[in-house]
Amino acid sequence: MGLETSMYNLTPPKHLTPHLLRFIVSELRPVRGARDFYPEDARLRSWLFSHFKEVSRTFAFEEYDAPIVESESIYTRKSGEEITDQIYNFEDKGGRRISLRPEMTPSLARLIIQKAPVLSFPLKWYSIPQCWRYERMTRGRKREHYQWNMDIIGVENTSAEVELLSAIISLFERVGLSKEDVGIRISNRKLLQELLSNMGTPENQFSEICVVLDKMHKLSKEDIFENLSQLGLSEDISSEIFDMLKIQDISTFEQKLGADSEAVSELKELFNLADSCSITEWLSFDASIVRGLSYYTGTVFEAFDKKQDFRAICGGGRYDKLLSSFNATDMPCCGFGFGDVVIMEILQERNLLPSLLQNTDDVVFFMEDSLREVAMKVSTILRKNGRSVDLIMKSKKVKKALKYANKIGASRLIMITPDEWEKESIRIKDMASGEESELLLSKL
Amino acid sequence: MGLETSMYNLTPPKHLTPHLLRFIVSELRPVRGARDFYPEDARLRSWLFSHFKEVSRTFAFEEYDAPIVESESIYTRKSGEEITDQIYNFEDKGGRRISLRPEMTPSLARLIIQKAPVLSFPLKWYSIPQCWRYERMTRGRKREHYQWNMDIIGVENTSAEVELLSAIISLFERVGLSKEDVGIRISNRKLLQELLSNMGTPENQFSEICVVLDKMHKLSKEDIFENLSQLGLSEDISSEIFDMLKIQDISTFEQKLGADSEAVSELKELFNLADSCSITEWLSFDASIVRGLSYYTGTVFEAFDKKQDFRAICGGGRYDKLLSSFNATDMPCCGFGFGDVVIMEILQERNLLPSLLQNTDDVVFFMEDSLREVAMKVSTILRKNGRSVDLIMKSKKVKKALKYANKIGASRLIMITPDEWEKESIRIKDMASGEESELLLSKL
Q1: Is residue A268 in some structural domain?
Q2: CA distance B365 to chain A (A)
Q3: Which domain holds residue B25?
Q4: Residue A309 and residue A293: Cα distance in Å, rounded?
Q5: What's the complex ipTM?
Q6: Does pLDDT of A3 surpass 60?
Q7: How many Cα atoms are found within 13 Å in the side-chain-facing hemisphere of B422?
Q8: pTM beyond 0.80, yes or no
Q9: Which residue of A31, A115, A130 is in closest CB contact with B98?
């Protein structure tokens, strides 16, 4: 019971015929870009999720969920967003356009609008949905990932953002990452918005401009400028934006945008509140953070490993205007998505992944087939006492059973042997101390 | 924070415009047959899953998982199975035929074959996958459900079946169901197989005959006979099968099939071992149980509420020949699938669903905006101590905060008030006793 090697190290088994091998490649593989979870993978996933859940619990967020399949229409926004270009979509048998969810926020919006009149705000909700996208695969990116989402609906001041940032940092601390390993870069889209407004640029294409600017590190400056000019921005304005995105301190913006800048005051408030939560050292202001989703309206942030060897660990921000895009009344919202893939890669690289065994209390085995029923009776009693019991269902020699109990890290080996059973007794070996004792079945 | 009414009792909100109402119906509903999980629904789901997981743990089963999307080809078996007729399938952008999984067993088979050479058998694995089918919806049946699966791979004797049955009964006991409420009916497909063989019927269509017979309670006798005649069975043989399926005791089969009947000896062994596990009173032999999946080869079973008001709660059996249908070497396998929908309906009907609150330790609030930072500092400290802290992010009056803390069932209310804070103190109210105390922040 248990897996000898990890799914990541699969060597082709020798006994396979060429036919079977082809079959395995084509038919027995998971669909492209998706992961199987063998027990050792599932244990690690469960370990990570338990931290997501435990952080969510300490911040008093409630779990919610929505179907993994949604109407495609909730994802179609007018923009060049990567995520909506990569929708894993289909037509169902009834001719409806549906999609595997690429992200959770539209489902969350749907749930809120559907029941807004009977919900009591603010809401603090979390979820760990699996999300899918249809795209080329690169390091740290598959076609599916799990994404821890925390969202606060109905709080307009930046204490909401700071609660979310604190939760992310709490997760980092739990899994053993320090502020030397990772950090969160923060900006506010209103900086750009105010700047554009000062330059007399119309606001209606603001979200699309942000989506273009998010690609700054991937595309050449020429391509970005070309994209911006398609959105009506002159080269001068584009240049000014480019310079602006390099600014690393809030005070420069304060001089630029004036004392009554909303963007600046929100940022200052955020860093001030972060100080009360002792998380300031994890945070930095970085005007180049804009995020690639069109719906963000204020604070935006991304967490990175400091060596920048990996993609962003998580990202989020404020999206106060999303609900009106569904024809509902807007409410202040902010949240983040935190994928399972990048964080696990970072933890693996830093040797921070735990070695997880099966967590079995007792291995029960019998030496002769005639003792099978006794072994099943013993297992039943132990399980009723709440113990985790691994019953070996074939008669075994002591040596083999001992080796197995050792391998899976069991606490005790329960031996049903002919000699002991003659006295209606069983033999119990404590695997840590090696001590053995005999116990009457009636005393179990 | 939190939901006032259940998703099952949604009354149309009054402020909605006809336009928005139409929009909600068409766009803001989950896709047909799928469920949203608002926090109170998610709490119940989590409660049920924790029982699934806890039973799996006491039986030392290891968790595994596979993608919710699989190649359609792993589900296409030659038969009239309901489940394969209702596949929720699509073509992806690369022209591949894929499907949302209708059940977990083919994925399990895929995982086993893919790594058989490096796995150490027997395996005892469990999973709680969401499964989808595209079909008309009836009571207790949606287009998706979660299905607890437990499977044992590599054990040929019936102790495997008895372990599975014990696990199911352990789940029933945990959620408060007794043997007066529910029971498991058991048969063995080899009974029918031996009977058909004695009558000289060829064996190659055996699995299809079983799939037809599983519909016995849904279709008319004439329709069943018609279907069986299409599979080459004469009316005499069909009649004999019909009579046979009514037999309720193993000894009649023993007389009919002889002392060396494998079917009879397996059934006798199963009931004998069940006795060692003290579960016999939950079980009954019932020849009419055949199951609707073609891959079962031996023991088959279904759990029902005794009043028979609901669909089957769970079903399973032995499927020793599944792996060869994927061109791999067969291995003895047995398992079951246990859905979340029917069991929850039964528990609801019997008033056995728990009232679950949010499980928050402390509600922290501040009376004036100037105390926001203090409240955030206090929350940070309490969370570092492992407490679940619900920070109210707007200044509140004591009365309102108290009402809220009461509603969500918090243990304590932490009050940040101007009077106390002048002394660098906070006020703590124990919600159960009503007692209040003052504490210096430095002592927290």
Answers
A1: yes
A2: 13
A3: 1-30
A4: 23
A5: 0.93
A6: no
A7: 3
A8: yes
A9: A31
